[in-house]
């Protein structure tokens, strides 16, 4: 594990009093945390607590939701991610996203992986990028002889690894994963978890998961979110953020202990 002092360069993201609104409704409030580089951070908590909402703040995909608004401070390598001069499209190249349901394009396996570099006009050897990305996603050996076949013909677990390869092809700095294994069988889930641990050597990863065992297995840091009713509105809030072994073995808040021990949520 990292031995350097925890200074500014040790963190990829810093948030301070981050609030997210949908229209006039406050969805998540006062989120303050620091995401360390080249580690896996898990967001856990009951449904509706704002885990995915906060995740989308990190690559500005909340911008695509009508009425969504972000207040507070969010920096990426020390720079304001929401400054007026920041291009959200450039942000999404550096900060990739893997969604809950595998979503390969209705294209060949090769074209799925090559899509991002082509659209961005990256001056690269596409054959090399495709092979390297598929290897990093632990999929090359399974598909190397059928790269012209439709990506949607693959199994669910293979499709999710194809989506990870597609994200890797544009050389991101961060990979966001929103419930990446919830639609997968246990064997495919294990493959994705093993892949995350391998990718951690090169990438910063943030994962949203409802699976407590998964969070405890793969993550270095864990953020526990809870939710409260404010009138008729559900508002998410970060309750506790610490090293994963602390969150699961000796959390400071009773609400965290109750959740990780399965007493609510």
- CATH structural fold name of the domain at 8-102 and 174-260: Rossmann fold
- Which CATH architecture of the domain at 8-102 and 174-260 would you pick? 3-Layer(aba) Sandwich
Strand percent estimate: 25-35%
Number of helices: 10
CATH secondary-structure class of the domain at 8-102 and 174-260: Alpha Beta
Structural class assignment: alpha/beta
Q: What does the radius of gyration come to? A: 19 Å
Give a structural overview.
This protein is of the alpha/beta class and 265 residues long. The chain has a domain at 8-102 and 174-260: P-loop containing nucleotide triphosphate hydrolases (Rossmann fold, 3-Layer(aba) Sandwich). Helices cover 33% and strands 28% of the residues. The protein has a ten-stranded mixed β-sheet with strand order 5-4-1-2-10-9-3-8-7-6, with helices on both faces. α3 (109-120) crosses α4 (126-136). The two termini are 32 Å apart.
